[in-house]
Amino acid sequence: MENPFKKILHNEELPEVLKEKVLKDVAMIKLSIDMADLFVVKYPSTIADLLRGGVSKKESKDKIK
Questions:
Q1: pLDDT tens for residues 38-62?
Q2: What are phi and psi of 22, to 5 degrees?
Q3: Which of 38, 59, 35 is nearest to 47 (CA)?
């Protein structure tokens, strides 16, 4: 595989194909982070809220006092 950075330095302009590939890679990384956030952070929090009867942690602490 040819090194795309040599093309950039040689032409001093980013080829559209390479630009699209980088943007797609960044979008895939962002999607992966969003999916991880959804299933690792938000999903367990939602399940915990449902099991508590829809009451948030702050509201449940206020009821205890």
A1: 888 888 888 888 888 876 666 666 6
A2: -65, -45
A3: 38
Distance of CA 49 to the CA centre of its chain: 23
CB distance 13 to 23 below 8 Å:
no
**Among 36, 35, 57, which Cα is nearest to 46's?**
57
Tokens of 46: 């939602």
Distance (Å, whole) CA 10 – CA 34: 36
**Entry pTM:** 0.52
Angle at 45 between CA 59 and CA 27, to 5 degrees: 130
